[in-house]
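Dear H.,

Thanks for agreeing to be a second pair of eyes. The structure we're designing against is below in token form, covering all 312 positions.
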């Protein structure tokens, strides 16, 4: 049996203390940023302003059917309506995901010192996510569209995932849910073709999510070094499976029915769309590059990521 020497034990303790200091320093910076740049959507946004005629609710290039034969047959009014329903579906997906994320964060800090900056920032992030979920819900209601819940199967899989997920698995899933939507929203909020209210919602979300992404990335990087080997392998597999499920849930096919399209035809054309595949891979690229760098995209997990369509 191999035993550590006194020098090796001291080095290990020194490394552990250094990692904790780094974690606290990152959290302190994020807490300071939160104090400077946090928003109350109920006060910041004009919810009573009428929507502007001819403006999109999501940039047309990011609408799922963009560039397909079906899109070319649709009139401008129907395209705008589809963008309104897809924005609502993405808001609904965002709420589902943020509810999972909040539970994962509570689990993460459950047995950690509540006085640490790391825990205080996690609680701050939960506050942010509560506001975001209410903001998305209000936007859906204001847009006059239905609520688009994920499928019953995805609801149940979400329950399983948030129960069995390891800490690195939780932060990988966090980044998946945040970074693809963040990429799309960074294209949305400066786009003057888009409704001002939608631009305001996405601007708030982008500013605050930047802190959440930093927190998750820093913690995941540490976890993929310090977690047991079985946990690292489990993270690789579960993250790949979650990527596959997320990519399926990203567009709710009910939107096609509600704007007067043939659902089966629309779904088939989205699946065959090279433009849509490029959009999803572009949205995920910054994340997949990072996950590849820290050793998540390996083995079975990498194959599952490829199967999801988010990794070329």
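And this is the sequence the design step returned. I haven't edited it by hand at all.
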């Amino acid at each position: 049996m191999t035993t550590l020497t006194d020098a090796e034990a001291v080095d290990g303790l020194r490394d552990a203390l250094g990692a904790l200091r780094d974690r606290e320093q990152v959290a302190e910076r994020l807490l300071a940023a939160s104090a400077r740049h946090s928003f109350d959507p109920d006060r910041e946004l004009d919810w009573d302003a009428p929507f502007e005629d001819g403006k999109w609710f999501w940039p047309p290039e990011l609408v799922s059917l963009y560039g397909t034969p079906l899109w070319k047959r649709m009139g401008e009014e129907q395209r705008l309506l589809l963008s309104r329903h897809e924005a609502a579906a993405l808001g609904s997906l965002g709420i589902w995901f943020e509810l999972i994320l909040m539970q994962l964060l509570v689990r993460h800090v459950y047995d950690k010192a509540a006085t640490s900056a790391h825990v205080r920032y996690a609680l701050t992030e939960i506050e942010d996510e509560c506001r975001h979920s209410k903001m998305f819900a209000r936007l859906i209601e204001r847009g006059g569209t239905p609520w688009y819940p994920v499928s019953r199967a995805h609801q149940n899989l979400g329950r399983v995932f948030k129960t069995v997920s390891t800490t690195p698995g939780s932060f990988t899933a966090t980044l998946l849910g945040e970074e693809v939507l963040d990429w799309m929203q960074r294209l949305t909020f400066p786009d003057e073709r888009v409704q001002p209210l939608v631009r305001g919602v996405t601007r708030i979300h982008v500013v605050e999510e930047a802190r959440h992404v930093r927190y998750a990335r820093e913690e995941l990087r540490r976890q993929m070094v310090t977690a047991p080997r079985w946990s690292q392998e489990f993270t690789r597999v579960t993250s790949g499976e979650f990527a596959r499920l997320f990519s399926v849930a990203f567009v709710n096919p009910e939107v096609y029915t509600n704007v007067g399209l043939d659902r089966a035809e629309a779904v088939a054309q989205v699946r065959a769309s090279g433009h849509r595949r490029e959009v999803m891979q572009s949205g995920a690229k910054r994340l997949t590059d990072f996950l590849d760098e820290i050793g998540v995209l390996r083995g079975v997990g990498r194959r599952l990521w490829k199967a999801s369509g988010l990794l070329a």
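Two observations from my side: The CA atoms of residues 245 and 308 lie 8 Å apart. Confidence is low (pLDDT under 50) at residues 6-17.

Warmly,
E.
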